[in-house]
Amino acid sequence: MITTNQRNKILFSVPVILLSIPLIAMQFSKSWNWSSLDFVVAGVILFGTAFIIKMILERFTTIKSRLILIGITLIILLLVWIELAVGIFGSPFAGS
Question: Among 46, 49, 43, 50, which Cα is nearest to 8's?
Fold first, then answer.
């Protein structure tokens, strides 16, 4: 059985691993060019999502409600990430 402490370590290590991918890729490729602001924004989004998932896991006890709320959270994360990357909705956050 996974304890709450172990679950939190796993949950918050996922953003660290995801943020290390572009950091490592920037060392080997000139086409991958993230500024420090890009890392800060990605970190806020990823760690914020991990925190929301942590809150969902702590406050809801049924598997069905957990799955639905975590699914909605991940869909929102995906939509925000895509909007910031390519601007599918044309919001001012996507840049020019």
Answer: 50
